[in-house]
Amino acid sequence: MNLNSVMDEIGARLDTITGLKVWPYPADSITPPAAIVAYPDTLTFDETYGRGMDRLTLPVVLVVGRQSDRASRDHLAAYANGFGARSIKQTVEAGTYTAMDTVRVMSAEFDVIRISNVDYVAATFDLDITGQGSS
Hints:
It contains three helices and six strands. The protein has 135 residues and is of the alpha+beta class. Strands 1, 2, 3, 4, 5 and 6 form a six-stranded mixed β-sheet that branches. The termini are close together. This is Tail terminator.
């Protein structure tokens, strides 16, 4: 798998969610609501014999608004829902990709993160991605 292509394709798929700003790479500053495709912690080679498959867990950080804003909770809930127009899971898993064979949104972890000295309500979605090791 080519990491650049995987991150770009996930970013392009997320960009189909109306009103969501997407960065297919870590960004220094953002304007919520925003999705940031982050770097994987690990890329595991040779999951199957003969370079047949590689696997990675790709984090997507979703930032919705200021921590103290009640509307942030409502926005986050729509993105964290398993289905619907703003669902990260439904949108990502419904995509057609060339850079990878499979993608599954495994989980979402909620937190408050600081970007450019502003605290935002956020969720990190972990995507389990597999693809050809020899391409």
